[in-house]
Amino acid sequence: MPPSLSVSALSKSYVVQGIRTQALSDVSLSVDPGALSLISGPSGCGKSTLLSLMSGLSRPDRGAVHALGIGLGTLDDAARDAFRLAHCGFVFQGFNLFPALDACEQVQLVLDYQGVPDGEARRRAREALELVGLGRRSHLRPAELSGGEKQRVAIARAIVKQPRLLFADEPTSALDSVNGAVVTTLLRDIAHRSGAIVVCVSHDPRLIARADRVIEMEDGRLLRDSRDPCSPRRLETSR
Amino acid sequence: MAVALARKSLLHDWRRFLPAIMSVGFSGVLIIVQGALLLGIVGSNALPVTQSRADLWIGFPGTQSADLGRSIDAGVSAELLVDPRIRRIEPLLMGAGDWRGSRGGGVSVTLIGIDARPDALGLARSVPPAVRALLEEPATILVDDGDLDKLATAIGEAAEINGHRVRVVGTMQGMRAMGGVNIVASLATARTLDRSLAAPDSVTYYLAGLWASDQARAVRARLSKPDTRSRFEIWTAADLAGRSVRYWLLESGAGIGFVFATAIALLVGTLITSQTLMAAVAASTPQYATLRAIGVAFPKLRLIVVEQAGWVGAIGLALGLTGSLLAAGLARLNGIPFALGPGIMALSGALVLAVALLAGVLALRRLRHADPAALLR
């Protein structure tokens, strides 16, 4: 059965210094497996909040999140931790790699926490690094890697456990055009090849152009949903 | 082996962890050195016991410390020798004197009168038979090597104790006292030098040697009867030595001083170590938050911090012990009483490890900032 991810009537607000901000209002959405889905929009439009709720990192005020047939809103913290450990991979804007570990160890660490035996974990970590084109640089620490390479290590770390849900938050915004393109292609290939659900939050036009589906947001609501990124309307709105 | 995140981070960021390691190490050195000095100094009150080879000590009932002995009836020895397990009995006298050196200067001294026979038990560890034999000559005394300067004297020189002329015929080792000076003479000489010891029917202690040392407790139990307890009390050598040390630790205020200084060392150690560990956690907050995002539970993250605290404690402790051994070497070279025993080392080891772990637990609060949702804002 292909993985599934849907949200219905999601609302979320934050209170910062006594002021309530409505981050999401009544958002409903279903995400396809095997495709790179991109949530796009201006700063503060609620796209990162939506990613946080879809991935079970936080709870909605109202509405429901169903991932792989499980209602994430009904799970307690420990159960959501276990769900993410089993099924979710994450790529963040700041690569968040441990300075003391080499690339292979950064990736292997995830499998260690899943209880994968050491030898197998190391082999799978190397394979994941091969997949992102860093097989020959697996012995290097973050300080010895370029920004693009660090993000590829972060992607290897996200995909090594073969997650059915992969979330990426602004994965290309700290990268130059060449590395941004490499990372974008990687994320789309992973979605196509593994059949996983890949949800990416970005306002990077390079990524928008390569996404299979672009969901645009504004003021905490869905504005537009384009399944064919090359349609004239799509290009018009992205300019 | 799984990726040793805690250890690798510690090695990679050793500069960051160095203050914590040093503070744990210094806490350890401080506790060990002052504890060993205190025990060494206080232990000098038990020197007559620890430097003798007696199995049992017989003295005035209720004596709190070996140096506070009062006279008992010399007739007690006959009662003691009834027990066939006792091999020999000999008196030991303790008195006081006022020392006047030939080059001037006055010092209060403790006078210890010992049996001068070569196989005697009294101060057998400090006074070897050859030196002991020198005391057979009347009006001769021995002083500790380290006290020659304090007494302004040398071997062969004359002095006065309580107005009686004496001659220094030799030196001994390991009898340096905390406050005053220990002067050792034969029983007969001691009785002439201190008038309070003059009566031949009284002694300060009887020292008993047994055929088998492991019988000490049994013999003591047999000889300690309700009707004898008003006249004399019997202790094993270890009991009397321990009692002397405890008495001075508690009575002199030095023990309280040690506890207070140790508490300060522990407090400062905990503060510095916890601040260092907190800074280390804060520096890794995005990485920890990423681990939280991929589903690693909080207790597993706590384990990383606690393991780092454990390593900081262990390395700091190793440094502390090394420093303390160096201090012990220096003390030995300078003849300073420094009782670096396994007890004080184990105590300080346990305390500094507790400091490190407590600091780790305090640093855990910073982990709460590792909120994965915060990475998405």
Structural overview:
Chain A has 239 residues and is of the alpha/beta class. Chain A contains eight helices and ten strands. Chain A has a single domain, classed as Rossmann fold, CATH 3.40.50.300. Helices cover 37% and strands 27% of the residues of chain A. Chain A has a six-stranded mixed β-sheet. Chain A is globular and about 45 Å long. Chain B has 377 residues and is of the alpha+beta class. In chain B, helix 1 packs across helix 12 (298-333). Chain B starts with a helix and ends in a 14-residue tail after the last helix. Classes of the chains: A alpha/beta (239), B alpha+beta (377).
Strand order of the largest sheet of chain B: 3-4-8-5-7-6
User: Tell me, what is the CATH class of chain A?
Assistant: Alpha Beta
Proportion of residues in β-strands of chain B: 15-25%
Rg of chain B, Cα atoms, Å: 29 Å
Basic shape of chain B: elongated
State the CATH architecture of chain A. 3-Layer(aba) Sandwich
Main traits of this protein?
heterodimer, A: 239 residues, Rossmann fold, 10 strands, 27% strand, disordered C terminus, B: 377 residues, 6-stranded mixed beta barrel, two-stranded antiparallel sheet, 49% helix
Question: How would you summarize this macromolecular structure in one to three sentences?
Answer:
Chain A is an alpha/beta fold.
Chain-wise SSE layout:
The complex is a heterodimer of chains A (239) and B (377).
Chain A: E1 5-16, E2 19-31, E3 35-40, H1 47-54, E4 62-67, E5 70-71, H2 77-87, E6 88-91, H3 103-113, H4 118-131, H5 147-159, E7 165-169, H6 177-194, E8 197-201, H7 205-210, E9 213-218, E10 221-226, H8 232-238
Parallel strand pairs in A: 3-8, 3-9, 6-7, 7-8
Antiparallel strand pairs in A: 1-2, 1-4, 4-5, 9-10
Chain B: H1 5-12, H2 14-43, H3 47-50, E1 56-59, E2 72-73, H4 76-80, E3 86-101, E4 106-114, H5 129-133, E5 140-144, H6 148-151, E6 158-161, E7 164-172, E8 181-186, H7 187-193, E9 202-203, E10 205-210, H8 216-223, E11 233-236, H9 237-251, H10 254-283, H11 285-293, H12 298-333, H13 342-363
Parallel strand pairs in B: 4-8, 5-7
Antiparallel strand pairs in B: 1-10, 1-11, 2-9, 3-4, 3-6, 3-10, 5-8, 6-7
